[in-house]
Each structure stands twice: as C-alpha cells, then as structure tokens.
Amino acid sequence: MSDTREVWLRGPIPEIPALLQPVAHAMLQATEEIRKATADFDTNKLWIKPYSQASVGFHLQHLSGVLDRLFTYARGEALSEQQLRALQLEGDSSQIYTAQDLVRAFELQVQYALQQLRETDERTLLEPRGVGRQQIPSNVLGLLFHAAEHTQRHVGQLLVTIKVVKENKV
C-alpha cells in the first residue's frame, strides 16, 4: 500500500541532515508530481508554448538544469562549459527528446542532489558562496533552499502547462 501523504509528512529522509530535510522533501515531492503528471503526456506536444509561455519541454529541462547549477554553486564551484551549453539549450525545440527522457533526466539530477545533501555538513550551511559570473553573494543554505523553492515553483507552472496543453487550450 503506497503512502499518499505529501513527502514532508512521511518523516525524515534517511541520511539527510536535519536542516536539509525540507530541501530533500521538496525535490522528492516534485519528482512524484512530475511522474504522475507526465505519465501519459504526448511527446508531440512537448514544445507547444501555450499563450506564448514556456513549454512543457522547457520546464522539464529547466528543472534539471537549475538543480545542477545551484548545487554546483553550493559546492563553491563555477559552472562548466557543459553546464553553460545545457543552459543555452533549455527550451530548444530542435532537440529530440521524449517527455520521459526529460523526466528521467530530472529524476537523475534529484538523485545527485540528494547525494550532495547527504554529504553536506550542517556546519557549512552559512559559508559564503558566489552565484554566477558576478559572484552575487549567497551561502550554502541559501542556494540549497532556493533550489528547493525554484523547483517547486516550476513544478507548479509545469502542472498547469501540461493541463492546458492536454486540453488543447492553446
């Protein structure tokens, strides 16, 4: 029997530091919601931009990319050339992916993020970190929290976009 409660109500995620549980819960909740919403999604509709807004494909790519980038900054690293190329390709409809390819990529990125959370020492959470080329000031906790909230924001947008595209309300 599956637990239908939201992830945060199911208790702590093993091996994740206490202060980082909300980040892990948000990412796991996003994963479940995305899986459910895309289970029967028609890949032919992946790049439709309803009302000139972001496509389902963009949201799925962006969800993976933003986790990768923010967790990179949280480690105190600069983005790689590969990450910068991936950023440029977010929303590029000439790429050949299925919705399930993009969902699997997100799930994999969540697994990487959870591993990083497991390895994060809570004593480092307030250590300064720079964001982007301008090195905008933040800290480890700020970046991880923003990764969680940004993920949730895009999942909400994704769910609405899926509904609009499925109902041909574009």
UniProtKB/TrEMBL annotation:
Residues 30-158 form the DinB-like domain. SUPFAM superfamilies: DinB/YfiT-like putative metalloenzymes. It comes from the Bacteria. Pfam families: DinB_2. This is DinB superfamily protein. It comes from Ohtaekwangia koreensis.
